[in-house]
Amino acid sequence: MLMRQLDRVDYLTTYQAMQDFTATRDEAAPDALWICEHPAVYTQGLAGKIDHILNPGEIPVVQTNRGGQVTFHGPGQVVAYPLINLKRAGYFIKEYVYRIEEAVIRTLAHFGVTGHRVAGAPGIYVRLDDPFSHAALSGPMHPADPFRGLGKIAALGIKMSRHCTYHGVALNVAMDLEPFSRINPCGYAGLKTTDLSTIGVSASWQDAADVLGQKLIIQLSP
Predict the structure, then answer these.
(1) How many helices and strands, by DSSP H and E, does the chain display?
(2) For the whole prediction, is pTM greater than 0.90?
(3) Which residues are the active-site residues?
(4) Which partner for 66 in 90, 137, 167, 199 could form a disulfide, CB atoms 3.0-4.6 Å apart?
């Protein structure tokens, strides 16, 4: 897998480049991993509902062909786009999602943070009151508030065409979280979002990008 760091790049330009890469690659083309951050933008997935965008203000909203609903990208967030031929890699989409989440969990562990999965809600979450606790989430989720006590620190949205993936995962490192309050993140009203900085981890964007890139390459190997 060839890893490229694109630094801060326009979302629409990158989105188009991913589509072009996927449409023109052949069976022999090597897989790629693009690491970047974007200027402030809301992106809406195929399942997205307009009523989940509460008050975008001057932040542009881009309709995409990835799965999921609305999320926010902005400076201080590491965005990773794995461009992988899953047929060649030898695993299916469900395992692909699991492997991406595992890479995020191991990235967080590198910084001493315990990441958690929530059934039926792709992405990675942390305990807001004790993000460094190693205890697993236990017991049934609260029916009225399944994310009680949790904050989302990484969002996932993917697309597959001709057995090849694009879009990817976004890890919040040290960003302005206010724009998340103007949407229902990933379609969940009241879902809190957080980043490494807010939970007490001092890590640069580059540090987090390097670790996440390494973990993704390991976890997504055939």
Answers:
(1) 4, 10
(2) yes
(3) 186
(4) 167
